[in-house]
Design brief:
InterPro entries: Elp3/MiaA/NifB-like_rSAM, Methylthiotransferase, Methylthiotransferase_CS, Methylthiotransferase_N, Methylthiotransferase_N_sf, MiaB-like_arc_euk, rSAM, rSAM_horseshoe
Distance between the termini: 78 Å
Helix content: 25-40%
EC number: 2.8.4.5
GO molecular function: 4 iron, 4 sulfur cluster binding; metal ion binding; tRNA (N(6)-L-threonylcarbamoyladenosine(37)-C(2))-methylthiotransferase activity
Keywords: 4Fe-4S, Iron, Iron-sulfur, Membrane, Metal-binding, S-adenosyl-L-methionine, Transferase, Transmembrane, Transmembrane helix, tRNA processing
Strand content: 15-25%
Radius of gyration: 28 Å
Cofactor: [4Fe-4S] cluster
Strand order of the largest sheet: 1-7-6-5-4-2-3
């Protein structure tokens, strides 16, 4: 089936977001089943009318891939929900499946193939979105299903409606970028994933995403700043900038990344309640802006964290990949940001076994990772993607690729990036629930994951915590004070986070994360990472407050008494889900004091008394009969 042109009677600008087109304006392939028996009038009258009314069905959405894909799914969910469709996490209960796909690696596309097969077996109407149909529209698995392209997500309601009628719809043309103000249903209501551009300027020999997302297309600075203002009013507490290459932003419209970042930062609340996370950026396009980007990363409302993929520690392999930078240029990015931004954390990516990679090339990669001991390294084996230049190159034997991947993973997992944090006091921003259902997930200014035991009402807030123990992938903390309104925080917190004065950020100061726009600052929560030491009186005061609060909530108190035991069970696989091995937290359960034993004894006596009363009432009722 050929690609369908978007047709509008009278104009070619496309329909407004949320509006539906008549059937003759959407390209469809009407499906006919000659073997399907005809329904008699009685059968037709018994057919539930609600199942035929557009907007009354239930939709299951499955998303593969990056944060940009996640944002696209949230936009599609928002439009469907606004039109009346129900959203379900249960594929069995859904009337239609919407599958948003990823083409970066073979395993993700294989997972898509499996899900499509299951949907067809279950006779579910299917709509496939994302990079696979956009970049490989003729793959066999897409036969007989509807397709919506990456720049056609504002037409998802039309596609779903026609698919539910039994039509096959295919919308793949690239026109203007989808509007940023489309309805949206966020997976996490406190996190806005904001796409700042689509596509990229690169031509990496292994990359299939370029085939799907295309050449660079940037949103305007004003539209993005306006979106930030809107989502903050909606209660969002974290904004993630997302794209295929954040560093390339604006080069197609005459601006650059620092201009955008400064415009967005200007919209962030001054109380520090909403944080900004800058997305993945390749080295070539930030080399000329390192100082400006470092200044933004020092801002109190911006996480001191950046994802900069290196892919290989060998210049020869980087050339074969057509990455357009050298290892030394990557080192310049890391060294400069680490020097200029206190507490800076950098994540990177490595591809093991790229075609032509020798033992020497791989050794250079291992040495690079050992030299920097990155806290986060995403390690993957090379997967040849159809239609890419690398797919035609001579491959490294698969057993060697796997062996190199295992070796580099062992090197990486031996690092202890969070050693030394125990006992430190940090400010964190809390936005999620851990997979164990017990801990909440927060992040420090340096984007270190902190797990705390606290009420769900703390989601969307900021807090001062004391780090109690560290693991390989995250640290555990204990809440000292919640900062619901930073501008009204108590004097004890101000004292806690401003014990020392620090000089301007151009001078060495490990705990300062001052904005370059400000005067010499105090190491407070609005200006620093919160690494200063508490005075003894503050510690005692806060310990007393916590003990009083815990005793008012017996369940919370019992959980905290056993936090060391819980740590042993949750350190593996919490929140990130991608790491394989976790260290076990050390420590034994605290011994119970006299008051503790008395409380527990009272609880047990109460339970037995209640049971006895129920038994007595039961016998009394029976005897009265």
């Amino acid at each position: 089936m050929e690609d369908i042109e978007d047709l509008l009677i009278g104009n070619g600008s496309g329909s407004p977001p949320g509006f539906r087109l008549p059937l003759n304006a959407v390209g469809v392939n009407l499906k006919k089943n000659k073997n399907k028996p005809k329904l008699h009038a009685k059968q037709l009258s018994e057919t539930p009318i609600s199942s035929k009314i557009p907007g009354t069905q239930t939709i299951y959405i499955k998303t593969f891939g990056c944060s940009h894909n996640q944002s696209d799914s949230e936009y599609m969910a928002g439009q469907l929900s606004s039109f009346g469709y129900s959203l379900s996490d249960s594929p069995e209960e859904a009337d239609l499946w919407l599958i948003n796909t990823c083409t970066v690696k073979s395993p993700s596309q294989s997972a898509m193939d499996t899900l499509i097969s299951k949907g067809k077996s279950a006779k579910k109407p299917l709509v496939v979105a994302g990079c696979v149909p956009q970049g490989s529209r003729n793959v066999k698995e897409l036969e007989g299903v509807s397709i919506v392209g990456v720049q056609q997500i504002d037409r998802v309601v039309e596609v779903v409606e026609e698919t539910l009628k039994g039509h096959e719809v295919r919308l793949l043309n690239r026109k203007t970028l989808p509007a940023l103000d489309l309805p949206k249903v966020r997976k996490n209501k406190f996190v806005e994933i904001l796409p700042i551009n689509v596509g990229c300027l690169g031509a990496c020999t292994y990359c299939k995403t370029k085939h799907a997302r295309g050449h660079l297309g940037s949103y305007t600075v004003d539209s993005l700043a306006g979106r930030v203002k809107t989502v903050i009013d909606d209660g969002v507490k974290e904004i993630w900038l997302s794209s295929e290459d954040t560093g390339a932003y604006g080069r197609d419209i005459g601006v650059n990344l620092p201009i955008l970042l400064n415009a967005i930062v200007a919209e962030l609340p001054s109380d520090g309640s909403t944080m900004l996370r800058i997305g993945m950026t390749n080295p070539p396009f930030i080399l000329e802006h390192l100082k400006e980007i470092a200044e933004v990363l020092r801002h109190p409302c911006v996480y001191s964290f950046l994802h900069v993929p290196v892919q290989s520690g060998s210049d020869a392999i980087l050339t074969a990949m057509n990455r357009e930078y050298t290892v030394n240029e990557f080192r310049t990015v890391v060294d400069t940001l680490t020097e200029l931004v206190p507490g800076m954390q950098i994540a990177t990516d490595i591809i093991c076994g790229f075609p032509g990679e020798t033992d020497k090339d791989f050794s250079q990669t291992v040495n690079l990772i050992k030299a920097y001991k990155f806290a986060q390294v995403h390690i993957s084996q090379f997967y040849p993607r159809p239609g890419t230049p690398a797919a035609r190159m001579k491959k490294v034997p698969s057993n060697i690729v796997k062996q190199r991947s295992r070796e580099l993973t062992s090197v990486f997992e031996a690092f202890t990036p969070y050693n030394g944090m125990e006992g430190r006091v940090e400010r964190i921003w809390i936005t999620d629930i851990a997979t164990d259902g017990i801990h909440l997930v927060g992040h420090t200014k340096a984007y270190v994951q902190v797990l705390i035991v606290a009420q769900e009402s703390m989601l969307g807030t900021s807090a001062i915590v004391k780090i109690t123990s560290v693991g390989r992938w995250s640290v555990f903390g204990e809440v000292i004070e919640t900062l619901n309104q930073i501008n009204q925080k108590s004097k004890s917190v101000e004292k806690m986070l401003s014990e020392e004065k620090c000089s301007p950020c151009s001078d060495p100061c490990d705990s300062c994360a001052c904005s370059g726009e400000s005067e010499p600052c105090a190491c407070g929560p609005e200006s620093c990472g919160g690494h200063s030491t508490l005075e003894q009186s503050d510690v005692l005061h806060n310990e007393a407050l916590r003990e009083d609060q815990n005793r008012r909530n017996l369940i919370g108190w019992l959980l905290r008494k056993r936090k060391n035991q819980a740590q042993k069970m949750v350190e593996n696989g919490i929140a990130s889900g991608s790491q394989k091995k976790q260290e076990r937290a050390k420590g034994a359960p605290e011994e119970w004091g006299i008051v503790d034993r008395a409380l527990l004894g009272g609880l047990i006596v109460s339970v037995f008394t209640t049971v006895a009363l129920l038994i007595h009432l039961g016998f009394k009722t029976m005897s009265s009969k």
